[in-house]
Amino acid sequence: MPWTRKDLLGLEPLSAEELRLVLDQVKAFKEVSTRSVKKVPALRGRTVVLCFLEPSTRTRASFELAAKRLSADILQVQPASSSLLKGESVVDTARNIEAMQVDAVVLRHNSSGIPVRVAQAIRPSVINAGDGSHEHPTQGLVDLFTILEKKGRIEGLNVLIVGDVLHSRVARSDFWGLSKLGAKVTFCGPPPLVPAAFEGFGARIATRLEDVLPEADVVIALRIQKERMEEQMIPSFRSYARLYGIDEAKLARAKPDVLIMHPGPVNRGVELAPEVADGPRSVILDQVTNGIAVRMAALFLTISAQEPAASSKPAAQTAAVSL
Amino acid sequence: MIDPARKLDGERDLLIRDGRVERVGKGLSDAGAETVELKGLWVTPGFIDLHVHFRTPGQTHKETIGSGARSAVAGGFTTVCTMANTEPPIDSVPLLEHIQAEAARVGLLNILPLAALTLGLRGETLTEMEGLRKAGAVGFSDDGMPVMRAAVMRRALEYSRGIGVPVVSHCEDKSLSEKGIVHEGVVSARCGLQGIPAESETVMIARDLLLAESTGGHLHVAHVSTAAGVAMIRAAKARGVRVTAEVTPHHLMLTDEAVAGFDSRFKMNPPLRTGNDQAALWEGLRDGTLDAVATDHAPHATAEKEAELEHAPFGVVGLETAFPVLYTRGVLEKRLELPALVAALTCRPAAVLGIQRGTLAEGAIADLTVIDPTIRWTVEPVRFESKGKNSPFAGWELRGQVRDVWVAGRPVLRDRKILLQNGETA
Q1: Of A156, A151, A159, A164, whose CA–CA distance to A212 is shortest?
Q2: Do A264 and A307 share a domain, yes or no?
Q3: Nearest-neighbour CA in chain B from A83: distance (Å)
Q4: Domain boundaries, chain B
Q5: What would the pLDDT profile of A1-43 be if each residue is shown by its tens digit?
Q6: ipTM
Q7: N or C: which end of chain A has fewer CB within 10 A?
């Protein structure tokens, strides 16, 4: 089965077959990263716009390296230098980007759903680099690939996702990817931050970490933001750390080969104790390494799936944005 | 002819003289009268909408009284109640008179303004309700700026008892809805959108029902969206509380699943709720718990609506689709009988306001709507009379369309063309 999607907007729409296909492609590109010359000509002559309308260091760096290793040209659009302000018509924004005759737009935005609407409006590939609390598909793929690499399989694993699930786009992408590939996902965190609705999609919801940590094969800790205290969703970082922070004492009751993951950046001493983040079970830096190969695969597959530039957009896609 | 106030549903002749219905019967003739043949069409009392936003003064780029009036007439409405949350809000007699003067200049239909409940919609100081009532206000509401202080709502309901018009409450506890944009539930969780819990509506309905019960004031609950809200209103009516309520076509027709595509055409307040809520709204409309269908017609400029979902304003237009949508997807799909739908658009909203309209009984003002049930058409917002194109029903294929509208015995819409006062087409 070939890859046919011009966009990568989320892992929710993908089938298990499509996920496996991407993961195979990641493996091939990871091999490239181990060579002394790390560059392939796959996207030579193509232009990739990195449109990060929300602060990001590591995801942008990862996409930039990925595009460079594929020999693509890169255009950076940054908040300070762009006119892309709150309230601007999303469709206008999209059309302006399209008019630059680019091949792909890597889009990060603090509003959920923006990449979905942009992708409907324009011909270039749109890769979601994180939209609001919706999805972060390349981070989800990083986590899938890292687990696969370390554990040899995904099916049948117990994966525990701990923290602010409600506001986490990583948690959603992880959930869809892992559950489609047969893992059992448990969300654990303070009840205001763990939406019970996910039970309807097959997730298990837990409130007490000690109940679910012993059976976990993988623990993915999520970053907790200071705003959650202002919103009365958690009383303090200290009490969060006591209940949901992962330290050596809590890990004493976990499986000896449990993987510890985090999408970064880690609040050390809050989500993860420093000795856990840097400890033997942590694969956080492997996640960062794999990020480049994942983003190479995302750029390569989506751009390769585009129709020839001369052909017109399907009518249905045009209609969807004529508001 | 369908006149639910008199349980009439059959072929009749109608004689109109001097703006009023003179006689209703069979085989009527009058030598001096102009004859209009409407065989095969439906004649109903003119539709009444308890809840529209015509954006005048202050936001006339979204809608004007003129464009709103044309939109209303094109949808079969002969009476609309304009909400007071304009800029500035209608919280004094001169502002109310400004609306009335504009309405008189436009003509076309009856525009009955509501006045603000509190000065500046700030929820602190009551407006001069008796003076506004005397000047023509048909109700009082702060609509989108719900009165958060219970003591203010209590006083308003007490006062309204002596004034004889309803207090219209947009029931929402802002501390629960916060920055939410869609119903809090499965869809908000999946899409990562901030939710508006059902309780933001239900706790306020509960509060206002208790206050209406203790004060004896007439509470009208705007745009009910939750199953629990319907249940509380039903129970309150059963114990004699003076409460009436309305429901919108979009809450009857759509659920929060519509928002999963991140399209702001489905963003309104209260938000689209679940299928369970939707079923309860239909049940409430059937059993009379919900008195009227009101559109909450809320036009916005296209560019405003195209912003990110968080920043796009709440609201949808509804006047030009209300009847055809509810007929096609309500009556034809057996969710509601046709006379019940007509009642919810005519005599029942008239009863909420206590106005002598909404029927074609002999002696009544001759406001009437003529419907061609055979027309098939597709909703194309660019063709709306309203300046607002923000319809959640764009692209829907519908059956039945309003053909003619008469206000006080004078045609204002004929063969879907709007007529000016001198009979020219607009």
Answers
A1: A159
A2: no
A3: 14
A4: 2-418
A5: 789 999 999 999 999 999 999 999 999 999 988 899 989 999 9
A6: 0.88
A7: N
